[in-house]
Amino acid sequence: MTYSVAIPAYNAAKTIAEAIKSVLAQTVPPSDIVVVDDGSTDDTAAIARAQSDTVKVITQDNAGCGQATSRAIKRTMCDIVATLDADDLWMADKMEKQLEILRQANKQTLVFGSHRHFKHGSDDYTTGHECDGKTRSDLVLYRAAFDHVGDIFDPPGGRGDMVDWLGRARELGYQFQVCNAVLVLRRIIPGSLSYGRDNAKDQGYLMVAHRAMMRRKAREQAESTS
């Protein structure tokens, strides 16, 4: 099974090379890697291009991680796509294990893995908190599934984009399967988009919840009139 990798990146010069190297080091390597540089003001794009001829870099004005991810997926070549945040890392056998799960599943299945946290600047990748991951860096899916669910929405504040997309996928009948192994190393960087609690950034989760309620209301109204 061949696969592509989609990576959204914004001011990721400190981490993008390491992220791409973890993809290139897979026991089952990708056919292509698409990085969408979402209006970075640092050397993210140049560093990404320098990693391998396998990497295609697309630049755009800053629009949000969801839009950057969507654009990256649309420019991939394969029927199977894996997504990765530009500051996270993959274990070397991540794709091998997830592709085996996908091989045995139907095309309505989205495959995830467990992940372990580590602190930026540390080389300790073994003692961090572990948990199941339904995040961008864990996800492997058929490209047709993405096309069916649609583009990833960017909420205000930048948080909750994948929560919204995965909620829509579940509503459409897609099944989630988690590989029972640590496949992803999630980097902890103080000040990053996902770090800690922030009232302004967390507004995105409220928008995501509201969108879900409105979709549910629309479904109930449609059912009541059918």
Automatic annotation (TrEMBL):
It holds the Pfam family Glycos_transf_2. SUPFAM superfamilies: Nucleotide-diphospho-sugar transferases. Residues 4-127 form the Glycosyltransferase 2-like domain. PANTHER family: GLYCOSYLTRANSFERASE, GLYCOSYLTRANSFERASE 2-LIKE DOMAIN-CONTAINING PROTEIN. This is Glycosyltransferase family 2 protein. It comes from Thioclava arctica. The lineage of its organism: Bacteria, Pseudomonadati, Pseudomonadota, Alphaproteobacteria, Rhodobacterales.
